[in-house]
Amino acid sequence: MSKYILALHQATMVSRAILFDRHGRPVASSAVDVPSTHLRPEWITQDPETIWSSLVRAAKEVMTKASISAADVAAIGIANQRETTLLWDRTTGKPVTQAIAWQSRISEPVCNRLRSESLEKEIHRRTGLTIDPTFAGTKVRHVLDTSSDIRARVENGTILFGTIDTFLLWRLTGGKLHVTDPTNACRTLLYDIHRHAWDDDLLEMIGIPRAILPEVRPSSQIHASTSKELFGAPIPIGCIAGDQQAGLFSETFLEPATLKASFGQGSSVMVNTGKTAILSKERLLTTIAGEIDGEVRYCLEGISFVAGGVVSWLRDGLHFIKRSAEIETLAQRVPDSGGVCLVPAFVGLGAPHWDGSARGAILGLTSETTIEHIARAALESLALQTNDMIEAMGGDLSTTFASLSVGGRAASNDFLLQFQADMLEMPVRRVSVLETPSLGVAYMAGLAVGFWTDLAHVKRQYVEDRVFHPAITPEARRQRLAQWKSAVDRTRGWRGL
């Protein structure tokens, strides 16, 4: 009898494999870094072959660590960085583009054209998204606009499009499946979230041929099995899902009005809205959260392009620290940021601003400013961006929230979560398994193959690690939020000056 579920998370900077037992506990893990290339500061790509080989390597390493074979794995669940886009040859399976990263602004000219044609309201109504280079459809259009060779091959029917989930599923099954799921399809600007289908009008607006699109299937089902050659025996693939929605599932089980945040290279904040797709008036995204008992659930989402990435920048770019964990020690050496605000708008501002012209800034510097103040301001920026998004959610839903559930690697930072609780004036609950996307797809894959009997079974496995409660005065909170909002305003419109 198979003992484990293998969760594969292909994230922005790393491919991770985790084995989970029947209690939803991680028993072994492996991670392989995935580098990015910056053609310009805001044009970001990754090598698809490196993405693929890193994921296979992580999967094999974790099985070796646990001394198991493919026969011990009941199913694989796949979580992926969303919106990252590539095209590949239908016959050979070889990529014909780099993977254009979700943060990349390379398709800004496409977005400018769509805005100039006054399509924003109609696209928002159908997709729940704003016109922005983040989303996959604009990236595909950019490729077609800039490569006559690829455009000709698309017209000849020899090229396929996919986000990372689709590419990995194609490779894992030896080219048998060209499939995505609703949580990824809804991030393309090509998918009607109300009709649950690719939309011909959207395809015409953006200029994408339907023939290159994958089939859309439910996230949690037995999609196929891996090629025997990969792991020595076939393993059923029981789930594919966008990583943020997978994390939402593991933290909230899609219960209405529940709120979660995830801190990775970027950050995502989501609130479940149940069976209703609420179109945001506060410049948030309306997106598909997943399915429960065959019924689609929705959420509102805010994303920031840079969250934990600011810590990577302090480590690798400025060399303030040698290891990411050191930033918490630095931040705690000072009682506050000394009036310093760091706005990590390296490629623009995400929700609720959606301003590609903004650029990062450190404001409030004096001759008394130290590395510790900058480190603290950097960590605070993660929480302050989250605060902006949750404030917008409250405006859309005309409500306040009881608490925030948090996951992601940066959520191990106690200082960050305490500051988050202070800024939100609400409890912040850290889950015991921080790698929430992996746990989410493990649960969904396990449910698909009967590893767990039903949703109630997996709900009983939910465990919190710690709850952080607000601990500052309202006046201190007001002052810090006012500083932050002023700093954000000063970053806007910088590109092009």
What features would you describe in this structure?
By secondary structure, this protein is α+β, with helices and mostly antiparallel strands. The protein has a domain at 4-244: Nucleotidyltransferase, domain 5 (2-Layer Sandwich), CATH 3.30.420. 36% of the residues lie in helices and 24% in strands. It has 17 helices and 24 strands. The strands form seven sheets. Strands 18-19-17-16-22-23-24 form a seven-stranded mixed sheet, with helices on both faces. A hairpin with a 3-residue loop joins strand 1 and strand 2.
Distance between the termini: 64 Å
Compute the gyration radius: what is it?
22 Å
CATH C-level category of the domain at 4-244: Alpha Beta
**Which stretches are low in confidence, meaning pLDDT under 50 for 5 or more residues running?**
none
* Oligomer category: single chain
Task: Give the amount of beta strand, in percent.
Answer: 15-25%
> How would you sum up the major sheet?
7 strands, mixed
Number of DSSP-assigned strands: 24
Tally of alpha and pi helices: 17
Pairing-aware structural class of the strands and helices?
alpha+beta
Strand order of the largest sheet: 18-19-17-16-22-23-24
Q: State the CATH architecture of the domain at 4-244.
A: 2-Layer Sandwich
Keywords: ATP-binding, Kinase, Nucleotide-binding, Transferase
GO molecular function: ATP binding; glycerol kinase activity
Pfam families: FGGY_C, FGGY_N
Protein name: ATP:glycerol 3-phosphotransferase
